[in-house]
Amino acid sequence: MSSSQTSTAKIPDDMAMLRAAAELTRDISAARGGIYWPDMLVSAVIGYGALAGAILLESPAAALACAAVAVLALYRALLFIHELTHIHRDALPGFRLGWNLLVGIPLLTPSFMYENVHTLHHARTRYGTAEDPEYLPLALMKPWSLPMFIVAALALPFALLARFAVLVPLGAAIPPLRRLVWERASALAINPQFRRRAPEGDFARLVFWQELGGAVWALALVAFSVAYGWRPLLIALCVVSAVAVFNQLRTLVAHLWQNEGEAMTVTAQYLDSVNVPPPGIWAELWAPVGLRYHATHHLLPSLPYHSLAEAHRRLSARLGEGSTYGQASYPGLWMLIGRIAKSTMRVGGKRAADNPAVIQP
């Protein structure tokens, strides 16, 4: 066992912190439709309106300004997919359907691509292991792994278009292709070893309708582009590429990525995760919908995003800055990126050579 495993995976649980997290948040645990619906709808309306401006405006400066607004607004709207994986299915009637119709299917990222995937990342015995679809020991890899991790996101919307417009229709006629697409290209995962199990029951029916909607929409986009030109679609794909890069940057700093595959205690998982609380204001742009409190989210996965700031305030006041809870707070994006980059330059090459268990992307 390496020293990093000893220092992270074997950290004992801080029971006082875990008890406080449960006790202090019982009264703020309900998802509030009066917050979810307006937030999602306003983000989507602003995003699509700005995207239309980016496509239609003749002034390059105005088009670029609209594209920037579209990236931020659509990014926020898209990140509600994270909430859909955690809130109870009956908590917000119609929200899952509404989000998929307004955001998920138009952006070719329906909720099935995260549902029953992200919850594996929160499973007590899976986090940080080879069975975690959302974990790689990025801080322990070679330095070039980080830029490759970010650049790969640029191709995501183009790959999604090909998936829904080509692979899904072909898979309906070719079962082996259908199985391959489901196992390897149906989850928002970063672990290349992850293989998705076939859907069952009600979830299989949900997948069918969402994939059908995605395929119809993707084919309509292609048909429109063939008939009227590819420029609007290419601009839209570039905007969504920027959204994907934004999300990949956020993912890069959501954790410290220091575990090499061993199961971790809840406290170790918390300390391997990141909060970027106020007074910084920019985190609300690059980590919206509560994701600036990602470590707190790992303590309280079912807590709705609009309650995380209050949960953080209560836990900080109860436990203090010098507590285990305070150790997961960091000042900002660039400091976290620099920390991971320095780690890869210091130990990545040596660990990759000495430990074949370290995953190489």
Main sheet record: none
Distance between the termini: 23 Å
The total of helices stands at 17
SSE succession: HHHHHHHHHHHHHHHHH
How would you classify the helix and strand content by structural class?
mainly alpha
Computed over alpha carbons, the radius of gyration is 21 Å
Low-confidence stretches: 1-6, 355-361
Strand content: under 5%
Helical content class = 55-70%
Shape: globular
Output mean pLDDT.
Answer: 92
The beta-strand count equals: 0
Characterize the structure shown.
With 361 residues, this protein is mainly alpha-helical. The model is unreliable at 1-6 and 355-361 (pLDDT under 50). It has helices at 3-8, 15-23, 33-56, 60-78, 80-84, 95-104, 118-122, 145-151, 156-173, 175-184, 201-228, 231-252, 266-271, 283-286, 294-299, 308-319, 333-354. The protein starts with a helix and ends in a 7-residue tail after the last helix. The protein has a domain at 32-104. The longest helix has 28 residues, at 201-228.
